[in-house]
Amino acid sequence: MPASRLAPLNRLLPGLIAPTFYPSILILFNLMFSANTYQARRERLRKDLKTGLVLLPGNNEVGMNYAGNTYPFRQDSSFLYFFGLDQPALAAVIDLDRGQDILFGDDLLVEDVVWMGAMPRMKTLAARVGVQQVLPMRRLAGFLKKMRRAGQTIHFLPPYRHENMLFLKEALNIPVRRQKDAASVALIRAVVAQRAHKSAEEIAEMERAVDVTGAMHIAAMRAARAGQVEAELAGLVEGLAASSGGWLSYPVILSVNGQILHNHYHGNTLRRGQMVLGDFGAETAMRYAGDITRTFPVDKKFTTKQREIYEIVLDAEVSAIASLKPGITYQSVHLAAARRMAEGLKALGLMRGDLDEAVAQGAHALFFPHGLGHMIGLDVHDMEDLGEQYVGYSDAVTRSTQFGAAYLRLARALEPGFVLTVEPGIYFIPQLIDQWRRKKMFEPFINYPALAKYRQFGGVRIEDNVLITPAGHRVLGAPIPKTVAGVEALRQG
Ligand code: GLY
Ligand code: MN
Ligand code: MN
Questions:
Q1: Ligand nearest 407 Cα, by number?
Q2: Is the pTM of this model over 0.70?
């Protein structure tokens, strides 16, 4: 990417970004790893799968309101992982039996160049990712049909884009509604086995994602003022993600209604006495995601009531991170965080009774109704398209059916190279409180009358991105203030 596209954040917003944050943002981003990286990944896939043919369709442009007015293009993450090319209208085949990789795609016509500018030819692009053989896209369906007739197994991943579903129907004759079940479990497992363990060059890219994300959060914490509309802050952080040379890793969650977990409405005005929950992240030019949450007061300081809840969440987050190491199951880390928050809520008089029982029965989920975190990488919820049972669970760790714990996306034993989020939260959701109270749920553990004073409180979540190392763990990126003192210093600065 040319340097001119990377507007340094400090020039864009003078004084807004702490000096310690801009070195990482000024790095010229790579758009691709070396050909060796992609070749080695495909080689490993070959070893793991042994036989058959792997079909990896890339993504196409998608129209927003008519075909030619498109959403920002986002390549399929597994295609990117194995073939590195971040542009539409490509597909790839790895023929395990013949030992060849083929890239399907078309060179631009002069008529296309008029609108889109010149692009390297397919042969050149293929060589950049270590592929020799290129065929035009119109040959793909026929190629696959021929392979099917020859009795070759065609492995594909669960599709999620409708255009690719229609293509699979045409080329493989599998009805759309059956395609998820017909996807290759062997291929899913082989892809997860690789993508779950981040290499050193991926980790460096993920550090960049978190650093840009940190700059976005610091900017929001500095800029927020009573009287602003949430959209002003949401637009600020979105602009910073774009000006770093990448984009957002998911739509910005930024709200004074932090109790709404994935709240994308940005029309409220910030009022004194409220808190802002910001959950947003940058995606680097190479498409690696950051996913960070901070919660801060609209005022320069937390009120006592806000601080009490904030400290409980922070304590749960910091202790969960401290416990991370290979071998420990993330389900146990989730439950320990739930238990720790239940203790804090009991000290405030909001929970009561035997907390081991309360957590075992799921009473804490009134306040913490989601999972502690998920894997992160090329996708913010990494590999969610491949199926959480393969990504976050194992034969030894199965999904709970209990409200709250059932939303846990990552539960299995941790391994070096995993990158995951740690994101506990406490929320006061009036509709949920009313429903549980009406049904007299968990009355031995929940002091419903005491909750009356918290109905307008909102929610607190704190989230960081953590690498599991052989010795334990490392929080990615430069620290983003999260202690009460650190957050208040930003609000006052
Ligand atoms: N940003 C969505 C999540 O934290 O899972
Ligand atoms: Mn998040
Ligand atoms: Mn997250």
A1: 1
A2: yes
